[in-house]
Amino acid sequence: MTRADSQRPGESELVIDGEAKTLRLTLGALAEIEESVGGGDFEALKARLASPAVRDILLILHALLAGGGARVPMEALKTAAIDFPQATKAIAEAFRGLSGEGEAPGKPQGASPGANGSSTE
Asked: Residues 87-103: pLDDT tens digits?
């Protein structure tokens, strides 16, 4: 199983300074993003994310890294070797967990329980 196969909804991976780091959208990360990027207003956050500045990307990465268990100081993040297009893809992948896309963890894709609880496949 590859790392990507084991990821949960709201999780992605990004290489920073040559080391793979987990980005995870947690409630704490979302609250931090809402406060730091949206000024505490979720609607303002959504509007600002429609066209984010580089600083917004750094703030979001910082929060998602903390959600994934990596405590990377903002100053270190500002000077880190990060592939910007990959960073934006990893952020988008982490946020896909909010939309409910994908299957629930542990549920085989395409299998749904029948009336008696058995798989309909």
From this structure: 999 999 999 877 765 44
